């Protein structure tokens, strides 16, 4: 196993005047055995970052080290990594066993050893009964497990996952998420996992890197990222519905955006007076969308309450108060959290 160190990583596509820089100096230290998720919206550069660690993309600047070895100039096959892709990339004409064994055969691992490693991985992933089937005879979830099995048998220092769950339906995705967690607990292999799905990121990550337009906005545990977002971008990206970000809250310091999560607004006899515009019933909870007119300002505020609370009527006035200690302050010019480091 090994740590991964990213030092001032830069990526440019193209050259000269048409060069397009898509990664702008990422620094991160991923500990030996850690499970780190790279999350961010489409186009933010997460796949590019992962592919640079894999050696599938060249690094334009900076240094990537796996363990104590700088790998910038090493071929993917020399990096001691295994990658699991979104589309599984299984060989259709080979059995499950042969798909899992293929990399080992190429590496001239002895036959007995291959058999033992494939059997062990098949047992962990519960795909033993399918070893003689072809990929087309498997469900999407089973194929995804074969793809993971192929990575496991190589006993790499590092696992790289590129949106491996996005082709699965919601139920299977949730189940496979649990299996990946279990796998990581059992094998303890350093893992980098790319997703655009914040729920996947929150549930899988020991720490997560939140990317925005080629910049790493925050690197922290799910709790840190949710409870102390480093910027308005992170505050809005993590959490559904997102944090309310108010440009002109009364009593706020000048040039400050005030953030309050929808679940941290309590309905009170007085407070911020919202006009209810929409109510959504989501089962265990209810979302109320209210317009807050105060001074020159006109802002939409989302309130999340338990389903048991009385349902607000459209058009009624609803007063809410942020819960003490749950208010976030961001710099209006930069979007950065104001009490960072405090
Ligand atoms: N081969 C390429 N040539 C030029 N630009 C590229 C290339 N690959 C990616 N890009 C650009 O780099 C940026 C980052 O792309 P990347 O695929 O890493 O984003 P992503 O966060 O993984 O997005 P998605 O979730 O949609 O896959 C995008 O603006 C993309 O258009």
UniProtKB/TrEMBL annotation:
InterPro entries: AAA+_ATPase, ABC_transporter-like_ATP-bd, ABC_transporter-like_CS, ABC_transpr_MalK-like, ABC_transpr_MalK/UgpC-like, Mo/tungstate-bd_C_term_dom, NA-bd_OB-fold, P-loop_NTPase. Residues 4-238 form the ABC transporter domain. This is sn-glycerol-3-phosphate ABC transporter ATP-binding protein UgpC. One of its GO terms (cellular component) is ATP-binding cassette (ABC) transporter complex, substrate-binding subunit-containing. Pfam families: ABC_tran, TOBE_2. CDD domains: ABC_MalK_N. Keywords: ATP-binding, Cell inner membrane, Cell membrane, Membrane, Nucleotide-binding, Sugar transport, Translocase, Transport. One of its GO terms (molecular function) is ABC-type transporter activity. PANTHER family: MALTODEXTRIN IMPORT ATP-BINDING PROTEIN MSMX, SN-GLYCEROL-3-PHOSPHATE IMPORT ATP-BINDING PROTEIN UGPC. The keyword ATP-binding applies. The gene is ugpC. It comes from the Bacteria. GO terms for biological process: carbohydrate transport; glycerol-3-phosphate transmembrane transport; glycerophosphodiester transmembrane transport.
């Amino acid at each position: 196993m090994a740590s991964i160190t990213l030092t001032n990583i830069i990526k440019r596509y193209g050259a000269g005047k048409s060069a397009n820089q898509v990664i702008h100096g990422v620094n991160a230290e991923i500990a030996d055995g850690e499970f780190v998720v790279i999350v961010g919206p489409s186009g933010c550069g997460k796949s590019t970052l992962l592919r640079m660690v894999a050696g599938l993309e060249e690094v334009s600047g900076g240094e990537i080290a796996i363990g104590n070895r700088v790998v910038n100039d090493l071929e993917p096959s020399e990096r001691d990594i295994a990658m699991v892709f979104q589309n599984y990339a299984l060989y259709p004409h080979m059995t499950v066993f042969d798909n899992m064994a293929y990399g080992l055969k190429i590496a001239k691992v002895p036959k007995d050893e291959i058999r033992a490693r494939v059997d062990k991985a098949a047992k962990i992933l519960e795909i033993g009964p399918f070893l003689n089937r072809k990929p087309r005879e498997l469900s999407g979830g089973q194929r995804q497990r074969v793809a993971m099995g192929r990575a496991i048998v190589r006993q790499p220092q590092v696992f790289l996952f590129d949106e491996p769950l996005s082709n699965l339906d919601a139920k299977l995705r949730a189940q496979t998420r649990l299996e990946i967690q279990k796998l990581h607990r059992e094998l303890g292999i350093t893992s980098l996992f790319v997703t655009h799905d914040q729920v996947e990121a929150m549930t899988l990550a020991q720490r997560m890197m939140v990317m925005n337009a080629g910049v790493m906005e925050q690197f922290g545990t799910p709790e840190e990222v949710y409870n102390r977002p480093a910027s308005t971008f992170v505050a809005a990206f993590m959490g559904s519905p997102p944090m309310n970000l108010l440009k002109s809250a009364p009593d706020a310091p000048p040039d400050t955006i005030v953030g309050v999560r929808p679940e941290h607004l309590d309905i009170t006899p007085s407070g911020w007076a919202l006009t209810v515009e929409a109510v959504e019933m989501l089962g265990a909870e209810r979302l109320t969308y209210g317009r807050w007119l105060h001074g020159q300002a006109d802002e939409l505020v989302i309130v999340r309450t338990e389903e048991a609370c009385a349902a607000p009527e459209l058009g009624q006035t609803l007063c809410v108060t942020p819960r003490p200690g749950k208010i976030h302050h961001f710099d209006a010019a930069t979007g950065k959290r104001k009490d960072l480091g405090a």
